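Translate sequence into structure tokens.
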Amino acid sequence: MGADAAPACLSVGGTVAECPGATREPWALYDHLIAGIPRGIRIEHWCLGSRWAYVDAECGMGVSLAVKGGPGAYSLAEQADGLQLHELAAYAKSWNFREASVGIAALNAWHSSPERLAVLGVRLSAERDVGRRDDAFRAYREQIRGRRVAVIGHFPAVGDLADLCELTVLERSPASTSDLPDSACEFLLPRQDFVFITGTAMTNKTIVRLLELSRRATCILVGPSVVPSPVLFDYGVDVAAGSVVVDKARVRRLIEQGAHMLFNDGVQMMQLERQGR
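Result follows.
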């Protein structure tokens, strides 16, 4: 499906190592997140739009950025009929990144539901328009002052950090002359004090190596695609700054219409922090 194509919308009826940087099965992080979803949860609707994906299930709705790339033709629309939520979430492991985007949204339908976050102690604002108060870059401005900071992904707010810290932005397709290609991660991340990683690293499968390289830093996952689960803490994540859907009808409409932004339009920022950090 091309970027301008109509969205594909269908209605469809363990123990981990103690050391965050320890060598382990590369799929372990994904398998733990998928295994955390109970069996028998029905999917009510899902959509892969031109910009975002959503999965609306009995337990809640999850979103993710729609990432392009990877091998093979996108064929999830022909395969998803009758899948339960944990089965659709398994597509997060697909090397076809459009399929993986739907899988990440399915993970978020469970892990970022308001009820699940409440169990984890995450308090959500009662206000619909929450502005950028929960933006991770804003929340950590004072902590990163004067420190070495790397940001994986050129976020809109990243330019505001340049005067505060020794900033390096790594981007697969550099958005400015000051950005470095993401291959620089091998050389730079082990020297950082703070590393902010885009949630789409889960979709494109770079997350495992990025976390290994960042194990000496405070590591913060950022963006709507972040799956806010305590499982992440066992893999070196300190903060999961993701999103929660607070207006399902509005989010469905926006994604199906190809909206560019979701925050303050039915999706609210949230942060899950590792205890004792």
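Note: Residues 97-111 form the longest helix (15 residues).
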